[in-house]
């Protein structure tokens, strides 16, 4: 059940991001500096039994700063739990995809990310347009995804070969109650998330998701890379 809840949390991020955001054209240019990586805390070689790689799901805390030191975001706000992100899933900035590879559990890094690999030419919240940003990221755990067929079986609660909106919504509500994942505890918002997921995946518009249609949701195959269970 915990693995399924983490899958759903990651899926929500993918669905919302894929529908609501477009990649910044400025990120396609190749004439800007790379991400600078500074290791702030490094585990011993003996303690580093696994390093992060593309498609891994990472459990992290982060703090974000502008170049002048002004904080603009933090996963630690209000005592929140660490969050889950997946490398290479297009749900995080490119600077994290680059800067969080080959990282050990217990390691903490400072990433200096130029606009090309951050938010580009558009302002985002308290981050002005064309800003270089700094993130301090602490890694707590490394996980992988689960296979598409396995994920489908876990979501198909009545085992009829399809996922309906009730099954999908019930799992989201159960995950939201844990307070561990970024899922709103609001029936209206959960309903909107379900609606967006089915708009993206339900190609024949019959109100059901087949295993093939589940795989059509943008980014889902990256989330479900066949590795360790979440």
Taking the sheet with the most strands, its summary is: 6 strands, antiparallel
- Average pLDDT works out at 78
Class from secondary-structure proportions: alpha+beta
Domain unit count: 2
CATH architecture term of the largest domain: Roll
What is the β-strand count? 8
Main CATH class of the largest domain = Alpha Beta
Q: What is the third-level CATH name, the topology of the largest domain? A: Chitinase A, domain 3
User: SSE order, as H and E?
Assistant: HEEEEHEEHEHHEHH
Number of helices: 7
Q: N- to C-terminal separation? A: 10 Å
Q: Could you say which overall geometry the principal axes of the C-alpha atoms support?
A: globular
List low-pLDDT spans: 13-32, 225-230
Oligomer: single chain
Q: Give the radius of gyration.
A: 18 Å
Helix content: 25-40%
Percent of residues in β-strands: 15-25%
Description:
It is an enzyme of class 5 (isomerase). This is peptidylprolyl isomerase. It catalyses: [protein]-peptidylproline (omega=180) = [protein]-peptidylproline (omega=0). Pfam families: EF-hand_5, FKBP_C. The chain is an alpha+beta fold. The protein folds into 2 domains: 108 residues, Chitinase A, domain 3 (Roll), CATH 3.10.50; 78 residues, Recoverin, domain 1 (Orthogonal Bundle). The chain has 7 helices and 8 strands, in the order αββββαββαβααβαα. The strands form 2 sheets. Strands 1, 2, 3, 4, 5 and 6 form a 6-stranded antiparallel beta sheet that branches. The protein has a two-stranded antiparallel ribbon with strand order 7-8. The longest helix has 19 residues. The C terminus is likely disordered.
């Amino acid at each position: 059940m915990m693995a399924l809840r983490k899958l759903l949390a990651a899926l929500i991020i993918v669905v919302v991001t894929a529908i609501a955001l477009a990649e910044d054209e400025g990120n396609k240019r190749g004439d800007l500096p790379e991400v600078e990586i500074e290791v702030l805390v490094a585990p011993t070689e003996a303690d580093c039994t696994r390093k992060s790689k593309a498609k891994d799901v990472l459990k992290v805390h982060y703090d974000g700063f502008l170049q002048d030191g002004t904080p603009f975001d933090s996963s630690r706000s209000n005592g929140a739990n660490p969050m889950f992100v997946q490398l290479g899933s297009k749900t995080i900035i490119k600077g994290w995809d680059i800067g969080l590879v080959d990282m050990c559990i217990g390691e903490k890094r400072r990433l200096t990310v130029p606009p090309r690999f951050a938010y580009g030419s558009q302002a985002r919240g308290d981050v002005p347009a064309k800003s270089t940003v700094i993130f301090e990221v602490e890694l707590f755990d490394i996980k992988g995804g689960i296979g598409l067929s396995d994920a489908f079986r876990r979501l198909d609660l009545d085992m009829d070969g399809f996922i309906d909106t009730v099954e999908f919504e019930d799992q989201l509500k159960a995950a939201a109650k844990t307070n561990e994942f970024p899922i709103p505890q609001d029936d209206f918002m959960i309903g909107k998330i379900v609606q967006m997921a089915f708009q993206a995946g339900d190609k024949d518009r019959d109100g059901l998701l087949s295993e093939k249609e589940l795989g059509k949701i943008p980014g889902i195959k990256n989330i479900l890379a066949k590795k360790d269970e979440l």
